[in-house]
């Protein structure tokens, strides 16, 4: 029989993985993995401002993420700097400003490692309600926007020709990612959330024949990574958040090896 805190940890990880997997597919298709890192760094600024202003930390992260989304989409319109340059500028600026703001909170005891790398074993019932309630809302929004987001991701010019609001969709995707970062803070921390977004999606790619199948497989692999990471952490006494990421990496290596072996089989079977 599992202890209660392990059950809560598994439920929290599954809740995050179910939304992070499909969103990660969109990020992989857009080739914007750096966007997750940038949002994570902006989350540190949100944490710092929340502690300094005595705001709820999760709410502060959401506000910082929304501000980041508005700023990024606005800066993208000037077309003088590439998106990856803008992401680097905003990511490192947010991280630096967050650390500077934290320096003003000298009287506060800040568990910075917990925020950076997560503490899923300390998840409480209230955290579960936030993760599953917020995750259900995000998943419903993603399902509603899936087709337009997919078209704007794969064929942006065609999406414009069909009259889709590409700019609004880009902003919506950034907002969904920012809110996912806030949800995932307790599970893997703000520095490792990008891994939970990208690695299961990349691992799912060889196993799926359609975008929808890839999204479902990515969510399933994310849940497997959570279970494997928490189990490995429990038995090997390793940090839980990083262990989840290592489990996801192992799944990625397995799927890549299986795909490579599958591609080699027909060549061996063919004559000559």
UniProtKB/TrEMBL annotation:
Location(s), subcellular: Cell inner membrane; Cell membrane
UniProtKB keywords: Cell inner membrane, Cell membrane, Ion transport, Membrane, Transmembrane, Transmembrane helix, Transport, Zinc, Zinc transport
Any one GO biological process: response to zinc ion
Organism domain of life: Bacteria
Cellular-component GO terms for this entry: ATP-binding cassette (ABC) transporter complex
InterPro entries according to UniProt: ABC_BtuC-like, ABC_TroCD
Transmembrane regions: 6-29, 34-53, 59-75, 87-108, 128-146, 167-184, 215-236, 242-261
Membrane topology: Multi-pass membrane protein
Membrane found in the keyword field: yes
Family the entry assigns: Belongs to the ABC-3 integral membrane protein family.
Role description: Involved in the high-affinity zinc uptake transport system.
Annotated protein name in UniProt: High-affinity zinc uptake system membrane protein ZnuB
